[in-house]
Design goal:
The complex is a heterodimer of chains A (140) and B (982). Chain A is an alpha+beta fold and 140 residues long. Chain A has one domain: Transposase IS200-like (Alpha-Beta Plaits, 2-Layer Sandwich), CATH 3.30.70. Chain A is built from 4 helices and 4 strands; from the N terminus they run E-H-H-E-E-H-E-H. The longest helix of chain A has 27 residues. Chain A is globular and about 50 Å long. By secondary structure, chain B is of the alpha/beta class. In chain B, 42% of the residues lie in helices and 15% in strands. Chain B is built from 36 helices and 22 strands. Chain B has a 7-stranded mixed β-sheet with strand order 1-2-3-4-5-6-7. Chain B has a 5-stranded mixed β-sheet with strand order 8-9-14-11-10, with helices on both faces. In chain B, strand 12 and strand 13 form a beta hairpin. Classes of the chains: A alpha+beta (140), B alpha/beta (982).
């Protein structure tokens, strides 16, 4: 079996534009995702982007994790939510920012990427739709 | 008549040097001048000297400021007054208490307040209010008009012209870390704070002659009658000079028997001890020896290692007392080099302690002699060219990128804009001005009278109190420093001794240097340059030198320790020395006198005292002059240019008179000049060589313990990776960190080295040290969950531990552990979680079989440690061509060969025509080191491209029997791809 790619979308609670409003949150989400993809064996991050109300990412899954890929990815998303939440809380403690405590929905939307063309399209989609470090707030 | 003058030691405020101030005063016809630097007394003594030279009466005081508000000015009426001022300022600086608005009740100080804060009736007899020349007109309606006897002229001086006023404003902006445009007028000095000619100054107060009279009277009554020259050091150790003498004699004689055997066999040494004791007593240095002995004795009682070096190592008394370990008879060292009536500078002992122990010894000295009498010396940290450009860039409001560009240019941009021009112009003026007080690396003063009698003291963060003056002023004041320094070499010697005891149950007498000198293994190691990790002799250049000299003895090592210094090496004398050493019958002396003077070193000047010998005996300079020349050469003389010029002229004049050929004189002078700033005294080299022998002995007989000690002390010439390599070559097995075996530092059991947690840099000290501590308290960790429960480790830290293999004892693969780590974190109840957001982890989540991969492990090591724990050659993607091994090089002289090596170090040098060339060091596949030379024509087409394994093509050359590869082509070999990244 070959590695497979999955397109993942994780949205904010109530689809509120938290990531557009709080560049720090966007930052935390990006770093947490990158660290997670580095530290979970068999799983590798491809393109990643933040939108105002969600993160979008491509994930490559090694063959040995493909028995139940959705369950595995859902588990990884949960790790992400957990860690991101912890860091966000720490940030808010030090900054006392007027910021939401609950950021993410509990489940991500996961789509299996079937072909190389589809993979290219998803990559392009992420690049075209990401926020870009808070610089382009309101760009959408 | 100026009683409020600031030098640039009003740090980040005053714009004028003492010399400029005094020159201004002289030109203005000033007869009395008071220096009142802001919360500082650094310039007091230079000011007094400069004023006396200029025929001006100096008055010394302090301007007390808090939060940029002038509280009051204190003028010392006499030396007691200066002490009062120093005590008051020091108290506030030490306690970090804000200075009060009112001065305390001083007995020997005049106090001058600014206008507007005090009523005339509230002033004490010694207190006045200063009236600025701009405030004179307003006196008409002031309550002070009726109390003119309490008024004095207050015309501060901070700068001298428009440019220096700008400098002052820039300094203030730098100090506030703010934009120049954001400074408020009250932040900086008024625009008239420069020195007016006396007649103009008096003219401004012409309507109030009483004020002028008061000012004159105050200044007349201030007399700073300080005598430069007499010693102000602690005068005795025991409380009585005669008792000091007796104690010193007893200690010297006791040591004499220990060092040289019983009385019937130590005749020569005894004679020398007697002679030295006589000079020490005559020059009143008994207490200096006894105090040094006292803190060395304390260190020994705490099992701290020390090395006594510097000119003090010329003394047999110091050797007998255990202050030094250098036998001056064996090396024919002259005591007079340390202490003689002609010496132009105070002698000093430099005592090194391990970097871990040094502060405790200093603390002992402070407690033993009392904080009122003890202080560390200050150094003046000045604005440096790059940092000042950065600072000015900030106050002019440039963005960071532009500042970086300016700093990177290092010289004026070719087309500077207006702001860049200003930054460069003022940067040049600020360069070299004092910025803040620093701490001398080890100089301590112990004074007879309280230290505040001569200086205020400050306390730097986490430090000991420091004087406000530096070592040069201390010398003028009559205070001789004790140098208590820190070095890492001693740390590894001590630690190696402890490790040997722990690991093998053996105690080594590390002071039995005489035995080390005779040790065959030590000699073999020295001769072959296998000295990695050994104190002072481990660098590639030194290893090569030792091999070229086939260095066998202590005396040869002493010489090698000095000729490796840059001056001797650069002048060509190192090469000449090696040649003469290897060919004692095939050279001619530059002049027969040179051969006579330096017979032991084949007529080559090797040590600092050789400069004295040549200047005195060859060129006929007086001993005092020769010593000045030595000091100028070693950079220990202030304002040396004039003296140097004068001595050079005399040197050449005398040589001409003696009839030496001009080219010989010229060459001897060139060799003397090459010593500038770099040379060692023989005693100093000898002290280093003793320490080298201790290292060499440990490495020869206990290589694994020794290398672990080196690793744990850090700071060696090579990267830590190569010390682990050296330990592996000595038969050790190096294990990656493990939470159930590793300590915070690297540890050793038999031949198993357990890498310490300290090497996992991103782990942080708290966790790195916390894991072994917790294991020690409550036993080994059972598994990952146990670790997470017992140690407050974060997910990132846990990931690092897993990836380096620190939980491999669990029997689980790293991949499985990483998944479990995330699961453990998701399940840990005390993490802050929202029940809405975070569902419990799926209990049925099952992991497939996740095997480890060796290559992934190595890449993890490279990422986390910076290097692989296994051989880096296992990472090679391509099988290199058949490569010559390092040990076979000598058999292929002048032949073209291919070698493959893992890069260890490179050294960049410039050729005489300014081109870059390099010397390199590599490890071959078998782990042996070899040296390479990369001339400009080869290097330009084949540059180093970072660490890694290189294929090197070139010719084997040799120099004094030491082979090297002269590289003509090289390329970095590609490595197997990182399997973790696709």
């Amino acid at each position: 079996m070959k590695p497979q790619y999955f397109f993942v979308t994780l949205r904010t609670q109530g689809r509120k534009p938290f990531l557009g409003r709080y560049p720090e949150l966007e930052n935390i989400a990006g770093r947490t995702w990158t660290d997670l993809m580095k530290s979970l064996p068999g799983m590798q991050g491809d393109e990643f982007g933040t939108r105002r109300d969600s993160i979008i990412a491509l994930v490559r899954l090694e063959a040995y994790l493909q028995n139940d890929p959705e369950d595995t990815l859902q588990q990884a998303i949960e790790f992400f939510i957990n860690e991101c939440h912890r860091k966000w809380q720490l940030h808010n403690e030090s900054r006392a920012a007027d910021a939401p405590e609950e950021v993410w929905q509990t489940e991500a939307e996961i789509k299996h990427v079937q072909t190389a063309e589809e993979l290219t399209r998803f990559r392009e989609y992420i690049l075209q739709n990401m926020l870009g470090g808070g610089l382009y707030d309101g760009w959408e | 008549m100026y009683l409020n003058v600031h030098s640039h030691f009003s740090l980040r405020y005053g714009a004028l040097s003492v010399e400029e101030l005094v020159a201004q005063a002289r030109a203005a016809g000033v007869e009395v001048l008071a220096l009142t630097d802001i919360n500082n007394t650094s310039a007091a003594y230079d000011f007094v000297k400069a004023c006396r030279d200029a025929g001006i009466k100096p008055v010394v005081g302090i301007e007390f400021r808090a939060e940029n508000q002038l509280r009051f000015i204190g003028l010392a009426r006499n030396l007691q007054g200066f002490q009062e001022l120093n005590e008051f300022l020091s108290h506030h600086l030490h306690q970090q208490e804000p200075l009060p608005e009112n001065a305390p009740e001083f007995d020997h100080v005049y106090v001058i307040y600014p206008q507007g804060y005090h009523s005339p009736r509230s002033l004490r007899e010694n207190e006045f209010v200063g009236v600025k020349s701009t405030e004179v007109r307003a006196l008409f309606s002031s309550p002070f008009r009726q109390h003119q006897h309490k008024l004095v002229m207050l015309h501060p001086v901070t700068f001298k012209d428009k440019v220096s006023r700008n400098l002052h404003r820039l300094l203030v902006a730098i100090d506030r870390n703010t934009l120049l445009s954001k400074l408020n007028p009250e932040d900086y000095a008024g625009e008239d704070e420069y020195m007016l000619p006396m007649d103009q100054l008096l003219e401004r107060y012409a309507d109030y002659p009483g004020i002028v009279q008061n000012t004159r009277r105050v200044l007349e009554e201030c007399n700073f009658e300080f005598e430069f020259g007499p010693s102000r050091n602690r005068s005795n150790f025991t409380g009585d000079r005669r008792d000091d003498r007796s104690l010193l004699r007893k200690l010297a004689y006791d040591g004499l028997r220990y060092r040289y055997g019983p009385d019937d066999r130590n005749h020569e040494a005894r004679q020398r001890v007697d002679r030295e004791l006589d000079i020490i007593d005559r020059l009143d240095f008994s207490s200096y020896f006894l105090i040094t002995w006292d803190f060395v004795r304390y260190a020994q009682s705490r099992n701290f290692f020390h090395v006594g070096r510097g000119s003090g190592a010329n003394s047999i008394v110091a050797y007998c007392m255990g202050i030094t370990d250098v036998d001056p008879i064996e090396l024919d060292l002259y005591f007079e080099r340390f202490l003689n009536p002609h010496r132009t500078s105070p002698p000093d002992f430099d005592i090194d302690f391990s970097w871990r122990d040094r502060d405790e010894v200093i603390d002992y000295v402070f407690k033993r002699y009392g904080t009122r009498h003890t202080a560390m010396l200050a150094t003046y940290n000045t604005f440096q060219s790059r940092s000042v450009i950065r600072e000015l860039g900030k106050v002019f409001g440039l963005p960071k990128e532009e500042i970086d560009n300016l700093v990177a240019q290092r010289k004026h941009p070719s087309t500077p804009d207006h702001i860049s021009k200003l930054i460069w112009r003022y940067g040049e003026r600020l360069h070299g001005m004092p910025n803040h007080l620093g701490v001398h690396p080890g100089g301590i003063l112990i004074s007879d009278r309280p230290i505040n009698a001569v200086t205020a003291t400050s306390v730097p963060p986490k430090g000991f109190p420091i004087t406000h003056f530096d070592m040069f002023v201390a010398e003028d004041v009559g205070l001789y420093k004790f140098d208590i320094l820190s070095q890492r070499g001693l740390g590894h010697i001590r630690d190696a001794g402890d490790l040997i005891h722990e690991n093998r149950g053996q105690r080594i007498d590390l002071h039995d240097v005489q035995a080390f000198k005779k040790d065959t293994k030590v000699r073999e190691q020295l001769e072959s340059g296998k000295t990695m990790g050994c104190f002072y002799v481990e660098s590639p250049a030194m290893r090569q030198l030792l091999t070229k000299l086939q260095c066998k003895t202590y005396v040869e090592l002493v010489a090698a320790s000095s000729i490796i210094r840059p001056g001797v090496a650069k002048s060509g004398m190192m090469r000449e020395y090696i040649f003469r050493h290897n060919n004692p019958d095939k050279f001619e002396h530059l002049h027969p006198k040179m051969g006579e003077l330096m017979a032991e070193t084949y007529g080559v000047m090797v040590y600092q005292e050789d400069v004295i010998k040549v200047a005195h005996h060859f060129a006929g300079l007086g001993l005092g002059e020769a010593d000045v020349l030595r000091r100028v050469m070693s950079g220990k003389y202030r304002n040396a240019d004039d003296k140097f010029q004068r001595l050079q002229e005399k040197f050449f004049g005398n040589c001409q008179a003696k009839g030496y050929p001009q080219d010989v004189t010229q060459e001897v002078w060139r060799q003397i000049e090459s010593f500038s700033g770099y040379s060692f005294s023989k005693a100093h080299s000898a002290s280093f060589a003793v320490e080298s022998y201790q290292s060499l002995f440990l490495k020869a007989h206990y290589p694994i313990e020794f290398m672990v000690a080196v690793i744990n002390n850090f700071g060696g010439f090579y990267a830590t990776e190569f010390y682990f390599h050296e330990a592996r070559m000595a038969g050790a097995t190096v294990h990656a960190p493990c939470i159930n075996h590793s300590s915070y530092l690297t540890s050793l059991k038999d031949k198993d080295i357990w890498m310490g947690m300290i090497h996992l840099k991103s782990l942080g000290q708290e966790i790195g040290a916390g894991i072994p501590l917790e294991r020690e308290r409550n036993g080994p960790f059972r598994d990952l969950d146990d670790l997470v429960r017992r140690v407050p480790v974060g997910l990132e830290q846990l990931v690092i531990l897993i990836r380096i293999g620190a939980l491999r004892f669990t029997g689980l693969s790293k991949k499985a552990l990483l998944w479990r780590a995330h699961l453990a974190f998701a399940a840990t109840p005390d993490r802050k979680q929202s029940t809405v957001l975070f569902a419990p982890p799926p209990s049925q989540f099952s992991l497939p079989n996740l095997p480890d991969d060796e290559l992934e492990d190595i890449y993890d090591q490279v990422e986390i440690l910076g290097y692989p724990i296994v051989s880096p050659f296992s990472l090679l993607a391509e099988a290199p061509a058949r490569a010559l091994a390092a040990k076979a090089m000598i058999r292929y002289l002048n032949q073209q060969v291919i070698m493959v090596g893992y890069l260890v170090t490179t050294k960049h040098v410039r050729t005489s025509n300014g081109k870059s060339m390099f010397f390199g060091n590599f490890l071959d596949r078998g782990g042996a080191m070899f040296d390479t030379v990369h001339f400009p024509n080869s290097f330009e087409g084949n540059p180093f491209v970072g660490g890694g394994i290189y294929e090197l093509v070139g010719k084997i050359v040799e120099d004094f029997g030491v082979p090297a590869l002269e590289v003509s082509k090289m390329r970095r070999l590609s490595l197997k791809g990182d399997p973790r990244r696709v």
